[in-house]
């Protein structure tokens, strides 16, 4: 399996001009089109992934900002 190319969440937040908290919450809620955030079942731990290529497209204005509906399990 190939390694996933991801970008550091702190670096991404800095480039977007937002806080890490805003970026994390948006990834978990499906607001950002370049990554995902997952809350592990029965845990407070969360995992985030930002696709480097999609993030750069978003920064360059080549990736539209779309809202994805996420299933919360409730």
Tell me what you see in this structure.
- With 74 residues, the protein is of the alpha+beta class.
- The chain is 36% helix and 14% strand.
- It is built from 3 helices and 2 strands.
- It has a two-stranded antiparallel sheet.
- The radius of gyration is 12 Å and the shape is globular.
Topology:
Layout: H1 9-16, H2 20-29, E1 35-39, E2 46-50, H3 52-60
Antiparallel strand pairs: 1-2
Helix pairs in contact: 1-2
Quick tags:
single chain; 74 residues; alpha+beta; two-stranded antiparallel ribbon; 36% helix; 14% strand; globular
Number of strands: 2
Number of helices: 3
Largest sheet: 2 strands, antiparallel
The SS-based structural class is alpha+beta
In short:
The chain is built from 3 helices and 2 strands.
């Amino acid at each position: 399996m190939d390694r996933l190319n991801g970008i550091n969440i702190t670096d991404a937040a800095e480039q977007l001009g937002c806080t890490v908290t805003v970026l994390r919450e948006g990834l978990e809620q499906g607001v950002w089109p370049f990554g995902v955030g997952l809350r592990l079942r029965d845990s407070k731990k969360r995992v985030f992934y930002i696709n480097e290529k999609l993030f750069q497209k978003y920064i360059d204005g080549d990736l539209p900002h779309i809202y994805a509906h996420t299933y919360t399990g409730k």
